[in-house]
């Protein structure tokens, strides 16, 4: 198995990622670090190859956090810069009850301080070693939480690729927290991965074989291995001889113990299918009777995606933070734009700690309370979820909503599909781009590079302002061009548009971000989709 970013033994291991924030004036006192004026440092929880993890207390709220202190020189010497950068990039976007929480990152010339959620009960791996095989209800509860977190990753186009009990942490109430995203990859529609990574015992056949894979299916395989470990106390594929281990994995050779229930005996083999195209999907797992049994209410309806979450603000917590001396309007603006600063860190710490309810982290009580508050604040907001109803726009797999019947078509939907004529599709695409003030450059008949600068009215550099019709696009010359004169702004979004033909005689429109903030790109995609009339 691969070495972990930091090897911590059962003492509140936390894995996280980084982001910058405005630091306040320093405060004196014991346990203070000049670089961490908002925190009182406590004992060291663990020491790793290039840093340590300390427990700390947030000065404003009094809540505990874990601070990972990473030495820049050691990171560089161990060639781990990309791993750390990747984990930071991913977790800064995530807000889910079963994914380790990042609060902020403070960077200095010598170190990187990553402030994360503090979890005190160690790894699921150690829990299994101590307890042996678990009772089915307990194993199912862990598994439901894991699937919920993995599903959230996939909805946000991230494949973990290294799921294993060592990377699943437990909080004080023994709720799962998915950690260590250092091997994760951002999924790009239409692109396939070919990186062999992760721990061999949990890796899918296509991964250890070096074959191309889309991504989500490799996490499903790893979840199948984890479920087997929870219910059996052993691994389905295990051999000290690596070639023999690989042979077992590639052949799907394992034994199901007789003590497993019929539901578990059906679900595990459907996840450990060697052919990734025939492997069960996350939505299908969700609909499986074994998974549905005793499913907590808060897990029955997935949380909003990252854009929807940014719109949701808890009024009570907001008032608490304002009482600390922060400006209300600035705080609301920072929360909606996902900006990390002293005020938003306090807000999220208070929010997370308030709703660690006895029924489970973010249990049904949390779901009901939050929905009531959010709906009262946004009575006309279609993004406010209703209990027992599918979230708007929640469609992870082709033809698959939350309440569709099991089984369903096992296909990952890439892009936007249409049966319209390609000329009609591209004409509508140009109209939508023009409406949104997006500049473009034609690369081929069905491929173009695009650039968008938000907040600039009439961003038409290099664009022809005449009415758009099919001859403009399909003529021999590129008449609608982007002027590549540089627009120097961190908010410039560059992306590519490509139209493909599928086997089902449909056409698939794919948008790929090349440069620019992820959230702005997602906002642009939503606006672009709303403009199209042929999809």
Put the structure in a nutshell.
With 535 residues, this protein is α+β, with helices and mostly antiparallel strands.
Question: Could you characterize the architecture of this molecule?
Answer:
One of its GO terms (cellular component) is chloroplast. Residues 312-352 form the UBA domain. Residues 486-534 form the KA1 domain. ATP binds at residue 68. One of its GO terms (biological process) is nitrate assimilation. With 535 residues, the protein is of the alpha+beta class. It folds into four domains: 32-117, Phosphorylase Kinase, domain 1 (2-Layer Sandwich), CATH 3.30.200.20; 124-295, Transferase(Phosphotransferase) domain 1 (Transferase(Phosphotransferase), domain 1, Orthogonal Bundle), CATH 1.10.510; 307-409, no CATH class; 416-531, 2-Layer Sandwich (TATA-Binding Protein). Helices cover 34% and strands 17% of the residues. It has 19 helices and 17 strands. It has helices at residues 72-77, 81-91, 124-131, 136-155, 205-208, 216-232, 242-251, 262-271, 282-287, 289-292, 297-300, 306-311, 315-323, 328-336, 342-354, 364-377, 422-435, 470-474, 518-531, and strands at 32-33, 36-47, 51-58, 64-71, 102-107, 111-117, 158-159, 168-170, 176-178, 185-186, 356-357, 360-361, 416-418, 439-444, 447-452, 493-501, 507-515. The strands form five sheets. A six-stranded antiparallel β-sheet has the order 1-2-3-4-6-5. Strands 13-17-16-15-14 form a five-stranded antiparallel β-sheet. α4 packs antiparallel against α6, α6 packs antiparallel against α8 (262-271) and α13 packs across α15. The radius of gyration is 24 Å and the shape is globular. Residues 1-30, 183-198, 357-413 and 458-486 have low confidence and may be disordered.
């Amino acid at each position: 198995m691969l070495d972990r970013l930091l090897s911590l033994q059962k003492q509140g291991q936390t894995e996280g990622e980084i982001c910058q924030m405005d630091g306040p004036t320093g405060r004196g006192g014991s346990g203070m670090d000049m670089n961490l004026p908002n925190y009182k440092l406590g004992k060291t929880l663990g020491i790793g190859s290039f840093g340590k993890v300390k427990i700390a207390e947030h000065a404003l709220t009094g809540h505990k956090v874990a601070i990972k202190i990473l030495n820049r020189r050691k990171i560089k010497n161990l060639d781990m810069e990309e791993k750390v950068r990747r984990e930071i990039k991913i977790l800064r976007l995530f807000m889910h009850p079963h994914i380790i929480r990042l609060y902020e990152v403070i960077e200095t010339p010598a170190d990187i301080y990553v402030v994360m959620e503090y979890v005190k009960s160690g790894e699921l791996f150690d829990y299994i070693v101590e307890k042996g095989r678990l009772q089915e209800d307990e194993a199912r509860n862990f598994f439901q939480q894991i699937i919920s977190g993995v599903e959230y990753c996939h909805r946000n186009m991230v494949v973990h690729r290294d799921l294993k009990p060592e990377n699943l942490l437990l909080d004080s109430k023994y709720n799962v927290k998915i950690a260590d995203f250092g091997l994760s990859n951002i999924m790009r529609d239409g692109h396939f991965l070919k990186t062999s990574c992760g721990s061999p015992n949990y890796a899918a056949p296509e991964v250890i074989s070096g074959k191309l894979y889309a991504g989500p299916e490799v996490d499903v395989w790893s979840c199948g291995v984890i479920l087997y470990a929870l219910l059996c106390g052993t691994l389905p594929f295990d051999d000290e001889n690596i070639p023999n281990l690989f042979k077992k994995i590639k052949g799907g050779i394992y034994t199901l113990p007789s003590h497993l229930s019929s539901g578990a005996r059906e679900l595990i083999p459907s996840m450990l299918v060697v052919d990734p195209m025939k492997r069960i999907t996350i939505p299908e797992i969700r609909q499986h009777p074994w998974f549905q049994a005793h499913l907590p209410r808060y897990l029955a309806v997935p949380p909003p995606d990252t854009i929807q979450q940014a719109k949701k603000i808890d009024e009570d917590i907001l008032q608490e933070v304002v009482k600390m001396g922060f400006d209300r309007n600035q705080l609301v603006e920072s929360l909606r734009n996902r900006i990390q600063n002293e005020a938003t860190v306090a807000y999220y710490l208070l929010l997370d700690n308030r709703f660690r309810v006895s029924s489970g982290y973010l249990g049904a009580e949390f779901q009901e309370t939050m929905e009531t508050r959010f709906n009262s604040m946004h009575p006309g907001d279609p993004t406010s979820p209703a209990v027992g109803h599918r979230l708007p726009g929640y469609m992870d797999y082709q033809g698959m909503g939350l309440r569709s019947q099991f089984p369903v078509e096992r296909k990952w939907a890439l892009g936007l599909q249409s049966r319209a004529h390609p000329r009609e599709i591209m004409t509508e695409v140009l109209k939508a781009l023009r409406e949104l003030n997006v500049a473009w450059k034609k690369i081929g008949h069905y491929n173009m590079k695009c650039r968008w600068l938000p907040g600039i009215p009439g961003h038409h550099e290099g664009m022809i302002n005449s009415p758009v019709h099919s001859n403009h696009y399909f003529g021999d010359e590129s008449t609608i061009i982007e002027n590549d004169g540089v627009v120097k702004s961190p908010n410039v979004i560059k992306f590519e548009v490509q139209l493909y033909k599928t086997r089902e005689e449909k056409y698939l429109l794919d948008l790929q971000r090349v440069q620019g903030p992820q959230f702005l790109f997602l906002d642009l995609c939503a606006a672009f989709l709303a403009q199209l009339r042929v999809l």
